[in-house]
Amino acid sequence: STARTLLQDTLRQGIQPFLSDATTSTEAIEMNELAGAFLLAEHAASAEQLFEASLAIDPALRDPLNNLAWLRLSRGTIDDTTRDLVKRALIAGPDDPSTLDTAGWSHYLDGARDPQAQQAVELLQRATSTREPSLESLDHSGDAFWRAGKREQATRAWRQVAESVPGRGARNRV
Hints:
It contains nine helices and no strands. The protein has helices spanning about 1-10, 25-40, 45-55, 60-75, 80-90, 95-110, 120-125, 135-145, 150-165. The N and C termini lie far apart (about 45 Å).
């Protein structure tokens, strides 16, 4: 793609275009950063191509594994490829809250493999056990708790989301 070629030319010139640490950055990391920029600009197809290009360079890099899995989940693609991306992302970052959220949400969406959402609950509890869990992870944990029959915990998670973002979200009246 043109973006990939531009990034490679920029790196060859010794210019580091993103905020990565220059002492530890690699072409794969820079490719992942560029993919993230495309994702923020709502160009998911370009982001996906760049995440894949990043993984072609470094197949064990956590962020593009996780982000590519998340993109696939967000469009409803739950297959062996998505499951493999999630598994590899967890190996690369077993304690990373974002990766744990993706893995938990994957289990939740793949209800046939996790009908009572037990694995989803476990992973999402780990994702939200940080000092400041993401609202998305809290919302996901609420959904998983609900499916697992843990109504009080689900309501508590959703309430935390609603109280953090006043006037926003479908669950602000929980």
